[in-house]
Amino acid sequence: SRDFRPADSVIDVGYGVKVGGTELAIMAGPCSIENEEHIFDSARAVKAAGANILRGGAFKPRTSPYTFRGLGEEGLRYLHAAGKAHGLPVITELMSVRDIDAVCEYADIIQIGARNMQNFILLDEVGRVKKPVMLKRGLSGQIEEWLLAAEYIMAQGNPNVILCERGIRTFETAYRNTFDVNAIPLVRELSHLPIIADPSHGTGKASLVTPVAMAAIAAGADGLMIEVHNNPDHALSDGAQSLTYDRFAGMMRSVGAIAAAV
Ligand code: PEP
Ligand code: MN
């Protein structure tokens, strides 16, 4: 907490990119790594628009077991190669202790997904490695529970923790999740850890992503995680919330204007 460590933590994630501090961290890319060519093209497009971190899922937590669950280790290899080719650190989700060595080998940042926010054994294990970890807020995670989950990682000796607000489940069904903008200034008050906003999962709807991204940056977020796809209608996961390359470039301009003003 701030009482223990007053100064903001700044996390070095490789390729000269820092999360927290003065520069915004913009993590962008497809929900899932779909194939080698697709992730390379995504890396090129998001970098051209100003992203500095590439995202892509290889192990996907899907509601239905009959939908695409990711390419697994093959996907990790494509993601790593695409990041390397374009000079971008990469982030991908680790769902199980089973895959920790593979994810550590290929990723620069380990993502702990919303559904695993309180998977304490997984948190212990990522606490034992030194890689930066981005801990997403659980679907019904209270702020205190989320910050204590981050403590699990740090208590094992890994101080490189990034938080990510990705929306919570409420009574509202008009959108997928309710992005809790309140969490951003509150977490900044309570914690020294950097906080990223994910308006893609936070809304579930592409048309809402840019305005909510702008709100999150105005509220003090250290960066964004944005799902981007060249052809959202054909995405293997989360197409409804994915921005096209053009739309993502437009979002970057809008967010840049807010960042310059705050
Ligand atoms: C994701 O980033 O694709 C993802 C599954 O996120 P969350 O854990 O926030 O649902
Ligand atoms: Mn997704």
From TrEMBL:
The lineage of its organism: Bacteria, Bacillati, Chloroflexota, Tepidiformia, Tepidiformales. Its EC number is 2.5.1.54. The gene is aroF. Keywords: Transferase. Residues 17-249 form the DAHP synthetase I/KDSA domain. The keyword Transferase applies. It is an enzyme of class 2 (transferase). This is 3-deoxy-7-phosphoheptulonate synthase. One of its GO terms (molecular function) is 3-deoxy-7-phosphoheptulonate synthase activity.
